[in-house]
Structure formats: structure tokens, C-alpha cells
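User: I've been trying to design a sequence by hand for this structure and keep getting stuck. Would you show me what you'd pick, starting by listing the structure so we're on the same page?

Assistant: Good idea, let's start from the same input. This is the structure you sent:
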């Protein structure tokens, strides 16, 4: 795709986000994964069978998405060059989630700042997997800031990276990998074998983008507040704590955000009533507050703008 098409895709995402009444490739992928999950679990027996089925799904779905999207764009371009650009821009915009992230976070921020904890808990439950029914305002703030950092990586910067690297087909294949991980890449009894390949493939796909995201967040802080010492602190926290996260990737942008905001991330989360303790990122930092959500959103927006500029520049150069 061209640099202009990439920029237009980012603008389209910023303007309309993810309208629920418009067909969306990622939702289609989700329905396909759900069907394959049920179908394969009914027919595969034993750990080895589930492992092989999971490998087939983890490789097959992204490959099919790549081929179908490349064919669709190629057909549109053969019919009319302008139609080809329109299809390219629309499909590219569906790989980006900046507006969707903004809308979901604002839905948490507004009631939280107004002191409406039940509404804030309900809203944060839409973007995190942990139990939210009894979260305090600080815990809601922590969950939201962690989500902003992680989603900036896999919902914005990673798609931009793959759009610049291989165009829409590669970016959509990445979204298939990411969706597979979110739906079946768990370590519970049902998915420990079946979801193994999806989780590992997602780790590989996000390795470079997660580290780019951490760098862009640090650069964003330098642009927003060039005289602040927080950039140096953010860099030190990334170097020291970024590898402590259970994910080989999520810890980098989360550590950058923790250091830049001066807050403590990580700790105990509850999943279906079962506690899970995660290492602290920037343990000497203060507890997150509702105002940190606003600061994290500013960093996300600037990192997105920088990411679009870098991706478009790369596309233009090559």
C-alpha cells in the first residue's frame, strides 16, 4: 500500500472506529475461530490430537486471511484502481483500534472521575479479563492504564508495523494471530494444548512491535514534556522491569507507561475468583489514580501519531 493509503486508513479509524453495524473482518475471524474451536474439540481426542489441531488452526487461519484479503484487493484493483485504493484503505482501517481503544477508555474514565464506581467497574470489565466487581478506584485506574499500554502495542503499533512491512494482507494475518491468542491462547484445561500454538505465534508476532511501542511511548513523553526527567525514568523501568511480566512482550510497553507516569503496575488480579499475582512494574511508584488514565491516553495518542508517521515514511521510502 502507499503512504497516502496508510495515512487515510489511520484517519478513517480515528473518525469512525469500529461501527457495530458495519461488517468487520476481525469479528468474522472471531466467529470462524469459535466455530473451529467447537468443531475441533468435538472431534479431537487426547492431548496430541488437540495440539495438532491447534497448530493447524494457528497456521491455517492467518494463511487463509492473507490469501483472501490479497485476492480481494487484487480483484478490486483489476476492476478499477480507485476501487482498489478504497478497499485497501477500508481493510487497513479495520486492523487499527485507536478509536475503539479511546472510546472504551473514555467510557471508564467518565464515571470514574464522577465517583460512579459501579459504572466504572462495568465499563472496565469490557476491556479486561480480570474480575472487576469489587475493584477500587485505584485498581480500576491500574487496569485501565495497563490496557492502554498493552493495546497501544497490539491494537495500534503492531498493525501499523505490519501494514508498512507487508500491506493489508500481512496486517490482517497479524489480526488473525492476535484474535486467536485472545480467544484460545489460554493456559486453562480446555486450551493448554489446543491454544499453545496460537499463544506462541502471537508472542513471535508481537516481539518487535512491543519493543517499538515502548520506544514510541518514551519518545511521546519527550515530545509532550521535553524538559521532564520522566523519560529517563521510563527507560530505566523498561530496562529493569520490562522482562518481569508473564508475557514476553506486554511488559515492555507497560513498564514504559509505569515509569513515565510514576505509577506502580502489576500485582494481584482475580480471574473467576482465583488470585493471580504478577510481578510489579516500577514497584517504588505510587498507586495509580483516575488522572493517570488521562495522561496515559495522551501518550497513546502521541505514540499513534508518531507510529503513523514512521510507518507512512517507511512505506514512502520503499
Amino acid at each position: 500500500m502507499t503512504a497516502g493509503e496508510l495515512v487515510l486508513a489511520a484517519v478513517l479509524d480515528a473518525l469512525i472506529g469500529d461501527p457495530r453495524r458495519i461488517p468487520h473482518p476481525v469479528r468474522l475471524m472471531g466467529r470462524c475461530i469459535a466455530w473451529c474451536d467447537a468443531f475441533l474439540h468435538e472431534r479431537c481426542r487426547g492431548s496430541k490430537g488437540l495440539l495438532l489441531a491447534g497448530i493447524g488452526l494457528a497456521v491455517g487461519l492467518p494463511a487463509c486471511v492473507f490469501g483472501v484479503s490479497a485476492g480481494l484487493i487484487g480483484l478490486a484493483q483489476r476492476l478499477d484502481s480507485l476501487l482498489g485504493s478504497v478497499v485497501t484503505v477500508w481493510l487497513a482501517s479495520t486492523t487499527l483500534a485507536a478509536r475503539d481503544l479511546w472510546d472504551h477508555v473514555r467510557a471508564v474514565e467518565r464515571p470514574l472521575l464522577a465517583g460512579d464506581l459501579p459504572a466504572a467497574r462495568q465499563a472496565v470489565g469490557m476491556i479486561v479479563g480480570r474480575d472487576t466487581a469489587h475493584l477500587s478506584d485505584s485498581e480500576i485506574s491500574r487496569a485501565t492504564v495497563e490496557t492502554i499500554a498493552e493495546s497501544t502495542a497490539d491494537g495500534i503499533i503492531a498493525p501499523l508495523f505490519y501494514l508498512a512491512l507487508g500491506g493489508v494482507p500481512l496486517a490482517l494475518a497479524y489480526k488473525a494471530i492476535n484474535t486467536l491468542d485472545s480467544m484460545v491462547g489460554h493456559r486453562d484445561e480446555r486450551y493448554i494444548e489446543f491454544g499453545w500454538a496460537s499463544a506462541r505465534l502471537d508472542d513471535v508476532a508481537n516481539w518487535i512491535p512491543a519493543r517499538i511501542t515502548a520506544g514510541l511511548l518514551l519518545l511521546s513523553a519527550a515530545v509532550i514534556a521535553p524538559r521532564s526527567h520522566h523519560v529517563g525514568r521510563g527507560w530505566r523501568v523498561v530496562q529493569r522491569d520490562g522482562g518481569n511480566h508473564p508475557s514476553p512482550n506486554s511488559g515492555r510497553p507497560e513498564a514504559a507507561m509505569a515509569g513515565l507516569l510514576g505509577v506502580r503496575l502489576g500485582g494481584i488480579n482475580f480471574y473467576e475468583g482465583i488470585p493471580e499475582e504478577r510481578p510489579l512494574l516500577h514497584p517504588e511508584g505510587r498507586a495509580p489514580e483516575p488522572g493517570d488514565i488521562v495522561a496515559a491516553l495522551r501518550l497513546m495518542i502521541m505514540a499513534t501519531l508518531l507510529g503513523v508517521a514512521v510507518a507512512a515514511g517507511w512505506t514512502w521510502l520503499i
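That's my pick for every position. To get oriented when you compare it with your attempt: The longest strand covers residues 274-281. The chain has a mean pLDDT of 94.
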